[in-house]
Amino acid sequence: MHNLRNVKIDDLKDIIEINEESIPAVNTVSHMQFKSFLRDCIYFKVVTNRSQKICGFLLVLPSGLEYDSLNYKWFSSRYEKFAYIDRIAISKNWRNKGMGKSLYTDLENTLKDYKLIACEFNVIPLNQVSKQFHESLDYENVGFQLTENGTKKVSLMTKKII
């Protein structure tokens, strides 16, 4: 059994640890950047276990930000309004227990002003778990992009929500 709740400033230390343990699926982010994400986000929740230990998180940003992310900029150049999944990370000991799906389902049920969710996952190096996860939730590929000086390639995905 797990629970979802909004992120509090005191959660950032645990969130950073989970984020760092999830590299290369996500990139490193400073405490200062996470604080700005907390200010700018439209969705930022943690998933906790029975003892309320943080096991993972999902961070979603609105379109229209000045955000120095190649993938965010790619979506910004093609879509007027979207909810951008900047990152999801689940602690290694808690993966494959439905926590990520709970976060995504909650996101879709929570978004009221957005009809499009955008995200990406690595295809080089291949993040097979993320590929299968997003495809199982009906996200569709809308393009590819090289990042990090050509060392990574991402599949850019969207999902329309009603």
Q: How are the strands of the biggest sheet laid out side by side?
A: 1-2-3-4-5-7-6
**Largest sheet composition:** 7 strands, mixed
CATH homologous superfamily label of the domain at 3-114: Gcn5-related N-acetyltransferase (GNAT)
Name given to the CATH architecture of the domain at 3-114: 3-Layer(aba) Sandwich
The total of beta strands comes to 7
Q: CATH topology of the domain at 3-114, what is it called?
A: Aminopeptidase
CATH class of the domain at 3-114: Alpha Beta
User: In sequence order, what are the helices and strands, one letter per element?
Assistant: EHHEEHEHEHEE
The overall pLDDT, averaged over residues, is 94
Overall, the morphology is globular
Span from first to last CA? 28 Å
Gyration radius from CA atoms, angstroms: 15 Å
Low-confidence stretches: none
The quaternary structure here is: single chain
Q: Give me the secondary-structure category.
A: alpha+beta
As a percent range, the share of helical residues equals: 25-40%
**Helical segment count:** 5
| Proportion of strand residues | 25-35%
